[in-house]
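# nightly structure sweep
# worker-07 picked up a monomer target from the shared queue
# config: single-sequence mode, recycle default, output format = structure tokens
# input follows
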Amino acid sequence: AEYMGGMTAKIVAGGICRTSVKFRPNPSLFTFPGLTQSHERYTSSEFPWVKQLKPDNHTFQGIRSEFVALRDSGVTSDYHLKQNEHTLHKGKWDWMTFVSNGIRQPEFEKKCPITTKWLTSVPNFMEQLPFSYAFFSVLHPGTTIQSHYGPCNLRLRCHLPLFVPEESGIEKQEKYGLMCGMRVGGDVFPWREGEPVVFDDSFEHEVWHNGTQEQGSQPRVVLLFDMWHPELEPGEREAIVRMFQDHKVANARNGTREETGKSV
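# output follows
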């Protein structure tokens, strides 16, 4: 289909070759060609714009407080697997969602106005695509999310760590030297409260929390959200959104379920 200004987008078939020699982006469902500036993790020292994702202390404390209030109100996780859907995690992984499959959840907006306002002020904040998410991600002790590739290379993913368990020196439970941490490609790191982590989840990545409740380990909580890949032009984003909207309408007519590919 051709859109305003002649902008078009379409899905074409192709083969994918993966090797274990070098870590490279390998989206599992959807690839946009020509995005050459791919990095496992985007650090503030290399990319100054990452610093803009760090909220001021008042806002950060407000986001934390809204999560605590939501949790203590008895709201249950809205992460649910569909019938026969493959799961990547073992243990307990809770979601409290603002954007799901590109769609805002009004109840979250009502209960978490500070979080909503901050997220929607983030440059290139992604919504309207089936690959876009924003939610409080709660990884409980004893939970792992196995290595996998994100579904597309259209986005960068950000974790804003709200609560991070202390590294208690439980050596037998450490992985890559960390009790609780993340690996993106060959980059292994912990979270630090209030310090945004930006990464390209089309690289192979995994997450773990090997602490235990018996030893007093607390859940790891991050505010997870997606942003458009910085190389995509505004016109390209518009064409991609329109393409997926048309695809969704066609699926609804045919009774086909849309594949989104969950990722951490």
